[in-house]
Amino acid sequence: RFFEHCYDLTTIDEMSFASRESLLNVGGGDFEGIVWDKFSKPFYRGRNLSVTINDQLEEMGYTVYMTRENLEDSIANTSTTESLQARVDLAHAVLADLYISIHCNMGGGTGTETYCFDLGGQSAHLAKYIQKNITEATGFYNRGVKTANFFVIKNTAMPSVLVETGFLDMESDREVLLSEEGQEIIARAIADAVAE
After folding, report:
1. Whether 32 is catalytic
2. Between the CA of residue 55 and those of 10, 61, 83, 124, 184, what are the distances in Å?
3. Can you tell me whether residue 59 is helix, strand or coil?
């Protein structure tokens, strides 16, 4: 099961997919609703990509749960901590097999990076597959698999990853992230990593 398209990724071949369910989380956080000058809203980009990933995974026979189906949806529309806990609770409630959080980066860099809570186990394995697939498919700079203490990948019981697909403030990344073709390529790379 794929929870929100977020940060943490896990190894697939070590996992049992009896129900083949996943949860996708649409990233955004504090960036939601902010228009970055000539760039599109990070939340919009993340959501469009997540919908594309959702479609591809469903075509492959997976059941996918999304933390937000529509732009106006919210998770525990309160504090950041309560919102993050609500995502974790949702992942546990639907007994997701995987939790994937999808994001677009900002801040003057370039390339793709994938986060997991630690480098051992299924999450790290999934992260490595996703990272490899995206960078090979897009030609994006490979920033590597990294660990982080992000709430959702730390507190979910299933393998979970957070994917920073690329940088919206880097023109070469942005051209891919904002194009339909680019989103299809990234979505397929993530879906194929799950299937591996």
Report:
1. no
2. 20, 10, 25, 24, 10
3. helix
Q: CA–CA separation, 162 vs 45, rounded Å?
A: 15
Q: Which of 152, 183, 194 is nearest to 13 (CA)?
A: 194
Question: 27 near 46, Cβ under 8 Å?
Answer: yes
Q: What is the CA radius of gyration of the chain?
A: 15
The single residue of 4, 21, 113, 164 carrying the catalytic annotation is 164
CB 8, CB 127: distance < 8 Å: yes
Tokens 């492959």 appear where? 60
Number of neighbours of residue 92 by Cβ within 10 angstroms: 16
Q: Report the run of H or E that residue 195 belongs to, with start and end.
A: helix 180-195
pTM for this prediction: 0.80
Model confidence pLDDT, tens digit, residues 12-64: 222 223 345 566 665 543 333 333 334 444 444 555 788 888 889 989 988 88
Sign of the alpha-carbon torsion through 147, 99, 192, 56: negative
Q: What burial letters (b/e) apply to 150-177, b meaning 16+ CB within 10 Å? A: bbbbbbbebbbbbbbbbbbbbeebbebb
